[in-house]
Amino acid sequence: MIIGGSASQSLAAEVAKELNDKLCSVETKKFPDGERYFRIKDEIPEDEKVIIIQSTGYPQDENMMELFFILDTLSDMNIDDITVVSPYLGYSRQERRFKEVECISAKAISKLLQSMGVKHLISINLHEESICDLYDIPVDNLSAMPSIAEYIRENHEDKKPIILAPDKGAENFAKQIAEILNTDYDYLEKVRLSPEKVKTKTKSISVENRSVIIVDDIISTGGTIVNAINILKENGAKMVDVVCVHPVLVNDAILKISAAGANTIHGTNTLKSEVAHISVATTIADHLKNLENQ
Description:
Blueprint: E1 2-4, H1 9-19, E2 26-30, E3 36-40, E4 50-53, H2 60-76, E5 82-85, H3 105-115, E6 120-124, E7 139-142, H4 145-155, E8 162-165, H5 171-181, E9 185-192, E10 198-202, E11 211-219, H6 223-234, E12 239-247, H7 253-260, E13 265-268, E14 276-278, H8 281-293
Helix pairs in contact: 1-8, 4-5, 6-7
Family: Belongs to the ribose-phosphate pyrophosphokinase family. Class III (archaeal) subfamily.
Subcellular location: Cytoplasm
Binding site for D-ribose 5-phosphate: 192, 216, 220-224
């Protein structure tokens, strides 16, 4: 039985279809004062395995609270086997303390989810792998890179683009996609020319007259991507496309990235977004099938 939360209803429907599982009928709404209402409309046997699919991105508090409501309702129904699939797990970008006595938000969320009966958590491209260590239950951190690579293969006019990470931290994403597509990858690095002057350039590959696809896990304000586009244009890139796993894209990020010269902007449907053109349903469904076969 699959339950789709408000933030991931379309994705939940896709996963249910791929698994040939029943999609539970639910009722959700928001009261005039902003509070949430949730009700499960279908009968669920006590021994049924239930999978909740609910991203907890913006508005984080609202989506997280709805997830807690779903979990509490299932507890009242004596459902014990609960897996949560949160493709974008909110409050997970701080997994350690940087200043004295500040909240480690990822740890707080881990305590709340576990206290509400979650037996297994699945997410996609968590900001840090160490987040998994905050949980005492199994946590699977899936990669959206195969889905992104397949989308590029099917839709990009250049079959051998350079896959570029905007910094060293995202190099592994670029590498995964490039290996699937059998093409080149690189990342931008800062080179100190003098004590006062720093230049950012590609590490080892010339982008002159080449098509380049910038890949990152999260694009929020778009500042890093705009900087990368400018550098690529200065170095003669023929065309620059942008792709990410989690299209947070706050404020006018899409406008800024487009104005900088991006040909297209694509993200996955871990979050609702006007650029969420890449589905991770197969990635999630395949993983759930593998878990069942273990």
